[in-house]
């Protein structure tokens, strides 16, 4: 059966003051993506179709993976704009700890996502319904007929929503899935014209040996 392998981008620049500054891989992120490409080739897995979001960190991740196939783009694979969501939630000014401390940031993000899903964050650029609709559109685009091994480079929130949708879980479960997704992890789906099944979630075979275990990161 055809398979869709969805990769979360490598580590980006956490703590950047704005979305544009965040949207670039850290030095670790480049190393993570290169390790993933090496591992996939070692396993004999080479894509015959590639789709990425439009974000810089998506393109950089795919470039570091080292495959020669030119990627397509689909904006539906872009992450929700968490800078926008948090700014709207905190009325335009993020508390310093939310902006700079990882634990405080993710606590605030988790509660903000719950409110966003319930349409309780006014003034956001994208509603929860708009987000889920575009992710579904991107999935249909990537899983159309004509390829057996489709590689997608995307982001944690999109991956969380793809898994939640495939499993038929609640929106709140999407948040739990989203916040588990490791940088450059693999989530694999099997698809047909009528079906879309989760086969593997958040796998990191490229970090399995002792020399690469230190490359693991979640944000």
Describe this structure in a few short sentences.
This protein has 219 residues and is an alpha/beta fold. It contains nine helices and six strands; from the N terminus they run E-H-H-E-H-E-H-H-H-H-E-H-H-E-E.
Layout of helices and strands:
Layout lengths: L2 E6 L10 H4 L4 H16 L6 E4 L3 H10 L6 E2 L8 H8 L6 H5 L1 H16 L10 H15 L6 E6 L1 H12 L3 H8 L7 E6 L4 E8 L16
Parallel strand pairs: 1-4, 2-3, 2-4
Antiparallel strand pairs: 1-5, 5-6
Helix pairs in contact: 2-3, 4-6, 8-9
Describe this protein's structure.
The protein contains nine helices and six strands; from the N terminus they run E-H-H-E-H-E-H-H-H-H-E-H-H-E-E. With 219 residues, the chain is α/β, with parallel strands linked by helices. A six-stranded mixed sheet has the order 3-2-4-1-5-6. It folds into two domains: 162 residues, 3-Layer(aba) Sandwich (Rossmann fold); 45 residues, no CATH class. It is globular.
Quick one: how many beta strands?
6
CATH class of the largest domain: Alpha Beta
Count of separate DSSP helical elements: 9
Which structural class matches the secondary elements?
Answer: alpha/beta
Instruction: Give the biggest sheet.
Output: 6 strands, mixed
Q: Any idea what the CATH superfamily of the largest domain is called?
A: Phosphoglycerate mutase-like
Enumerate the strands of the largest sheet in spatial order, edge to edge or round the barrel.
3-2-4-1-5-6
End-to-end Cα distance, whole Å, is 32 Å
